[in-house]
Amino acid sequence: MTPMAMTFWDVADSSLLYILVIIGLLYVAFLAGVFLRKAWGHCLELGIPNTTVKKVIASSCTFSIVPSLSIVIGLFSLAAVIGTPWAWFRLSVVGAVSYELMAADMVGQAMGYSALTQLRGEPAQVMGAVMIVMSIGIIGGIVTNALFCKKIQTSMASFNEKQGGWGALFSGCFMMAMMSVMMPLQVYNPTADYGRYGHFNLVGTLTLITSAVISLLVTMIAKKTGAKWLNNFVLAIALILGMVAAVMWSAVFPA
Predict the structure, then answer these.
(1) Per residue in 10-33, pLDDT tens?
(2) In this entry, which stretches build a coiled coil (predicted)?
(3) CA atoms of 190 and 197, how far apart (whole Å)
(4) Cβ atoms of 70 and 236 closer than 8 Å
(5) ∠ at Cα 182 (157, 189), nearest 5°?
(6) Residue 86 or residue 58, greater confidence
């Protein structure tokens, strides 16, 4: 099969992409191991008992595995449209489901496709465009962190210390601003066609509201009952029940 004859899915699910992704993930895992060893050695130099270090590592692993359930769930939805290897790489190294789907959808719409599911039989160049846009779009954050993260972090810590409650409010507003950038396109997209609802994504909007209500309820239950461990499952629960809600709303309000 010549490169010109290859399709989007031939690249998205190719053995070569699997191999390249595995190499990349092994490299990242190696770096994590190196940093773990250096951090462990530094703790011992500071006089922290070896048993304490082991307990911290064990507890960190536990609290890292539980929230990752939401990432695994997101992997299934992302893999359905851009293939398993690339979705695996994006969510294992850098990226988030909401960003990845939005970036891929923007590429598809820019190339004239109203839905990501239409890309499977299209030319391989479409998959190349999706991969490039996803990668370039996320690099800005990485470069910013590499150059300015320390300065931003120390400035924010100093601001919070001086301003007290206003510092916490500022941080919360900043997170809301980030969400405000992504949410409008989930509700109304002038380049998308949602059937009889036009550019208004009714099912997506109802699913968004349902997921928000579920997150709020789980948080309230955790607070009322004192079950702080439940906070680690908020995202996973919201994703699972949000997917169920999406199916339900799609049946109630078909396009």
Answers:
(1) 999 999 999 999 999 999 999 989
(2) none
(3) 12
(4) yes
(5) 165
(6) 86
Identity at 57, one-letter amino acid code? I
Q: What is the pTM of this model?
A: 0.67
Give the whole-angstrom CA distance, residue 218 versus residue 237.
8
One-character DSSP codes across 79-92: HHHH-HHHHHHHHH
DSSP 161: H
The rounded mean pLDDT for the chain is: 82
**For residue 130, with 0-12 CB atoms within 10 Å meaning exposed, 13-18 middle and 19 or more buried, which class applies?**
buried
Average pLDDT in the 25-49 region?
A: 91
Identity at 79, one-letter amino acid code: A
Q: How many Cβ atoms sit within 10 Å of the Cβ of residue 218?
A: 20
Query: What is the pLDDT averaged over residues 211-220?
Result: 92
pLDDT tens digits, residue range 162-173?
766 676 677 777
122: helix, strand or coil: coil
User: How far apart (Å, rounded) are the C-alpha atoms in residues 88 and 25?
Assistant: 9
Q: Helix (H, G, I), strand (E, B), or coil: what is residue 7?
A: strand
Residue in the block written with tokens 């988030």: 96
Write out the two tokens for 43. Answer: 């703790």
